[in-house]
C-alpha cells in the first residue's frame, strides 16, 4: 500500500473542496489533492511553529538560492535573484500582470478553455479579454496560431498563457512553444505564463519547458508564474513567485500590487523552501501514483458510451467531453449521481466536465462507479 492510498478524513478542516457539496456527493472539482503534504515539509513547519513568533516575513536568501538552483537543475534556466517577485498566489499575480501591461482598454489574448480566473482577470484591470479557441486536432488540444492571429487587434498587448494547460492537461512541446514565441514577437505581445503545474508532468517522455527559457528576447517579454503549492498539495498556504527579467516590467508589476496584495506568511515560506530543496523520492512517487489514476480514468472513460477524453500529459485534471450525452444541465446531472465535477462552461468549454483525479485510488474507483451510473442513466429511456 502506498501512502497516497490513505483516505484522509478532511471533515472539520473547512476544506473548500469538501464543503461545497453534501455528504452524498464526492468532490472531484477544485485543483486540491486529498493527499497529505510530505512529512519533511510538515516537520519543518512544526519547527517554525515552535519558535512562536509569526511576524511579517520576507523571502530569505536561502529560499532564493533554493529556487534559483531548482530552476537551473530542472529547466537549465539561469535566473537572477532580483528577477524574482513573491506574491501570495498565482491568481493575484496574473491579475497584477494584466494591470502591469498596456493601458485600460487594451486587449489580453487567451486560448480557451482555460482555468476560469484567467477569464475575468483582464476585466479586473480594465482590459479586454480576447478569447481564441484551442483546436482539437488528432486527439490533442493545440494552439491555433492562425485563429490567434485573426483575433489579435492593434491594442492587444498581452498573451495570458497556461502551460501545463488547465483544464486540458496538455504539456506543450518545445516546438509548439518556439512557434508561440515567434507569434508573440511578430505581434509584439508580452507574455504572462502560468506554469504552476510544471512539476506535475505525468509522462516520462514529456518535459516542461518554461517559455521564458527559450531565448533572452522571450525572457525579456515574459512574466513567468510558478509555485510549490500544487505539487506539494499546499494550495491553502498561498505562496508563489513571478520571474520577470525586464526591470521596467518588474517595476510595473510591483506597482500593481500596492495596497491590495498581502505578503506571504512565515509558514508558507518554510514550506516553499523545503519544497525547492526536496530531492527525496516523494514527488516521483506522487507522479507515478497520479499517472496510474490518470490511466484508470482514461481506461474507464474509453469504455463508457458517449464519453471521451484526451490524454492527460500533465496536471491531475481530466477534461471529459460529455457532449454526446446531450445533457441539458451536465453539471447537475453528474451531481445528482454523486459526482462533484467542475463545469466546463465555467472554463468557456461548454459540454465538458473537469475531473480532478488527485485522490486515493479507492476514492477514484468510487467516483468512476458513479460516473458509469451517471452515463447509463442517460442511455435508459
Ligand atoms: C493554472 C492555475 N493557476 C493558478 C491556480 C491557483 O493559484 P493560487 O492558488 O496560487 O492563486 C490554479 C489552481 O487551480 C491553477 O490551476
Question: If you had to describe this structure to a student in words, what would you say it looks like?
Answer:
The chain is α/β, with parallel strands linked by helices and 381 residues long. It folds into 2 domains: 3-30 and 281-379, Aspartate Aminotransferase, domain 1 (Alpha-Beta Complex), CATH 3.90.1150.10; 44-277, Aspartate Aminotransferase, domain 2 (3-Layer(aba) Sandwich). The chain has 13 helices and 15 strands. The strands form 4 sheets. A 7-stranded mixed beta sheet has the order 2-10-9-8-7-3-4, with helices on both faces. 44% of the residues are buried. The chain binds pyridoxal-5'-phosphate (PLP). Pyridoxal-5'-phosphate binds at residues 31, 89-91, 115, 162, 166, 194, 196, 227, 229, 235, 240.
Provide the fold topology.
Layout: H1 16-19, E1 26-27, H2 39-51, H3 61-75, E2 84-87, H4 90-100, E3 107-112, H5 117-124, E4 128-133, E5 135-137, E6 140-142, H6 145-151, E7 156-162, H7 174-186, E8 190-194, H8 216-220, E9 222-226, E10 240-243, H9 247-255, H10 266-277, H11 282-303, E11 308-309, E12 317-321, H12 330-336, E13 339-340, E14 342-343, E15 352-356, H13 361-379
Parallel strand pairs: 1-13, 3-4, 3-7, 7-8, 8-9
Antiparallel strand pairs: 2-10, 5-6, 9-10, 11-12, 12-15, 14-15
Helix pairs in contact: 2-10, 3-10, 4-5, 4-9, 11-13
The structure holds pyridoxal-5'-phosphate.
Pyridoxal-5'-phosphate binds at residues 31, 89-91, 115, 162, 166, 194, 196, 227, 229, 235, 240.
Q: Please give the number of β-strands.
A: 15
Q: What is the approximate shape? A: globular
Radius of gyration, whole Å: 21 Å
Summed over residues and divided by their number, the pLDDT gives a mean of: 97
Helix-strand pattern, N to C?
HEHHEHEHEEEHEHEHEEHHHEEHEEEH
Secondary-structure-derived class: alpha/beta
Work out the count of structural domains: 2
Spans with pLDDT under 50 lasting ≥5 residues? none
How helical, in percent, are the residues?
25-40%
- Strand percentage lies at 15-25%
Amino acid at each position: 500500500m502506498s501512502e497516497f492510498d490513505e483516505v484522509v478524513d478532511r471533515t472539520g478542516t473547512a476544506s473548500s473542496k469538501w464543503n461545497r457539496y453534501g455528504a452524498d456527493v464526492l468532490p472531484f472539482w477544485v485543483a486540491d489533492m486529498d493527499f497529505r503534504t510530505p512529512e519533511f515539509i510538515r516537520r519543518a513547519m512544526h519547527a517554525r511553529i515552535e519558535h512562536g513568533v509569526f511576524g511579517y516575513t520576507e523571502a530569505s536568501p536561502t529560499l532564493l538560492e533554493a529556487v534559483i538552483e531548482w530552476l537551473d537543475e530542472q529547466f537549465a534556466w539561469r535566473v537572477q535573484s532580483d528577477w524574482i517577485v513573491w506574491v501570495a498566489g498565482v491568481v493575484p499575480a496574473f491579475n497584477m500582470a494584466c494591470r502591469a501591461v498596456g493601458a485600460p482598454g487594451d486587449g489580453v489574448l487567451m486560448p480557451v478553455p482555460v482555468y476560469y480566473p484567467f477569464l475575468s482577470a483582464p476585466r479586473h484591470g480594465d482590459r479586454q479579454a480576447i478569447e481564441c479557441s484551442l483546436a482539437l486536432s488528432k486527439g490533442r488540444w493545440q494552439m491555433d496560431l492562425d485563429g490567434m492571429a485573426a483575433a489579435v487587434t492593434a491594442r492587444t498587448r498581452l498573451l495570458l498563457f497556461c502551460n501545463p494547460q488547465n483544464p486540458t492537461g496538455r504539456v506543450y512541446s518545445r516546438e509548439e512553444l518556439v512557434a508561440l514565441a515567434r507569434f508573440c514577437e511578430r505581434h509584439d505581445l508580452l507574455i504572462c505564463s502560468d506554469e504552476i503545474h510544471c512539476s506535475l508532468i505525468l509522462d516520462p517522455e514529456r518535459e516542461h519547458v518554461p517559455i521564458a527559457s527559450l531565448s533572452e528576447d522571450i525572457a525579456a517579454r515574459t512574466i513567468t508564474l510558478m509555485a510549490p503549492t500544487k505539487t506539494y498539495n499546499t494550495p491553502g498556504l498561498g505562496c508563489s513567485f513571478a520571474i520577470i527579467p525586464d526591470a521596467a516590467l518588474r517595476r510595473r508589476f510591483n506597482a500593481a500590487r500596492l495596497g491590495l496584495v498581502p505578503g506571504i506568511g512565515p509558514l508558507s515560506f518554510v514550506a516553499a523552501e523545503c519544497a525547492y530543496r526536496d530531492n527525496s523520492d516523494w514527488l516521483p512517487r506522487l507522479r507515478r501514483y497520479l499517472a496510474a489514476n490518470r490511466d484508470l480514468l482514461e481506461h474507464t472513460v474509453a469504455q463508457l458510451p458517449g464519453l471521451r477524453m484526451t490524454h492527460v500529459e500533465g496536471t491531475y485534471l481530466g477534461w471529459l467531453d460529455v457532449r454526446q450525452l446531450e445533457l441539458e444541465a451536465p453539471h447537475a446531472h453528474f451531481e445528482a449521481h454523486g459526482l462533484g465535477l467542475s463545469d466546463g462552461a465555467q472554463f468557456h468549454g461548454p459540454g465538458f466536465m473537469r475531473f480532478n483525479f488527485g485522490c486515493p485510488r479507492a476514492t477514484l474507483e468510487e467516483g468512476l462507479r458513479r460516473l458509469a451510473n451517471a452515463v447509463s442513466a442517460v442511455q435508459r429511456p
